[in-house]
Write a structure and sequence with these properties.
Distance between the termini: 52 Å
GO cellular component, one term: plasma membrane
Number of strands: 2
Subcellular location: Cell membrane
Order of helices and strands: HHHHEEHHHHH
Main location: membrane
GO biological process, one term: neuropeptide signaling pathway
Shape: elongated
GO molecular function, one term: G protein-coupled peptide receptor activity
Structural class: mainly alpha
Strand order of the largest sheet: 1-2
Radius of gyration: 24 Å
């Protein structure tokens, strides 16, 4: 193995290991102690972690160890190599969109509608939605299991290539794929993220005002405190409400951060596709590979930080205060 390939493999290996640790961490920390404690947000995080782990275990490892050098490029192998990356990518994108939409509803419901129930805060609804997303990912990418071909003069130089019935069919498939799997989810993520950002900005002043009121209450005279004893219960309730709001805002900020990273990765990915169609090169392929790997290794840590689970103790991660967002 030459030096350049070794360096690439080491970098990809580090990114893959970071992704495996982060996604397993996110998955395990989202598991409840009992089924009755399972929350919709936990299901969404577990679903995203599983989607990313498919990429980490079954896609990245194959690329890192260059398995095509040791396994004959038969149609079964080629089918798996084409199907798994797109299948896991589709599921990860949809999972990210669902998480963004969920916290958008949660934030709006808690800060604008006084904590009114939201549609996505329902296990049955989330289960149906995720089942549909996995089915969509399977149906939409299942063609990759069949439309493959081996281009080779002998077994040792065999390479995999997708081969649709015609160039027109290939072009149409790519357009539909980019539209349904990239553009529509991106629009949903951006819309929800913009709404979250606007809501955060609108409520920042209110939260600062509430904090100032609590500080002023601590400086009142004894006579004033005596007259305000009847309002103690309301004050405590207001303080708890503020704590919940702060936890919710923390999670919402992590969702916006993920949306920004997703947008950056998608723009770079699209740019590379355009460049590759004009002038293919190994450099653009490497950049595209690293961009895809960076998403699965960074995202879980942002979510872990946002929902206050970024701790080595699972119990501590689950009880960083009963005000933790995912218990809402």
């Amino acid at each position: 193995m030459d030096t350049e390939r070794l360096i690439k493999s080491i970098i990809r290996g580090i990114m893959c290991l970071a992704g495996i640790i982060g996604n397993n961490w996110l998955c395990i920390s989202s598991l409840p102690k009992s089924i009755s404690q399972l929350r919709p947000s936990d299901v969404l995080f577990i679903n995203l972690a599983v989607s990313n782990l498919i990429t980490n275990y079954l896609v990245d490892t194959l690329n890192i160890f260059h398995t095509e050098q040791y396994i004959p490029a038969g149609k079964v192998f080629c089918s798996i190599r084409f199907f798994l990356p797109e299948f896991s990518e589709t599921s990860s994108i949809l999972s990210t969109m669902f998480i963004t939409m969920f916290w958008h509803q949660k934030l709006v419901g808690s800060l604008k509608r006084g904590g009114a129930p939201v549609q996505m805060d329902n296990l049955h609804f989330i289960s149906v939605m995720l089942t549909g997303s996995w089915s969509f990912a399977l149906v939409f990418n299942i063609s990759r299991l069949f439309f493959v071909a081996e281009i080779s003069e002998n077994v040792t130089t065999a390479e995999c290539k997708e081969e649709l019935p015609s160039p027109e069919a290939d072009q149409a498939y790519k357009v539909v794929y980019v539209t349904l799997v990239n553009v529509f989810p991106l629009i949903g993520i951006l819309y929800a993220s913009i709404q979250i950002t606007l809501t955060l900005m609108q409520n920042e002043k209110r939260m600062n005002k509430m904090g100032a009121e609590f500080r002023n209450e601590g400086n009142t005279t004894s006579a004033e405190k005596s007259r305000e004893n009847t309002n103690n219960a309301a004050t405590v309730k207001s303080f708890k409400s503020q704590a919940k709001t702060r936890s919710l805002v923390r999670a919402a900020k992590s969702v916006v951060a993920v949306a920004i990273i997703f947008l950056i990765c998608w723009v770079i990915h699209l740019t590379i596709i355009i460049i590759s169609s004009i002038s293919p090169s190994s450099v653009t392929e490497d950049i595209e590979s690293f961009i895809g790997a960076s998403y699965t290794c960074i995202i879980p840590y942002i979510y872990l930080y946002g929902v206050q689970k970024l701790t080595c103790s699972r119990r501590a991660g689950r009880t960083v205060g009963e005000e933790r967002v995912v218990s809402q």
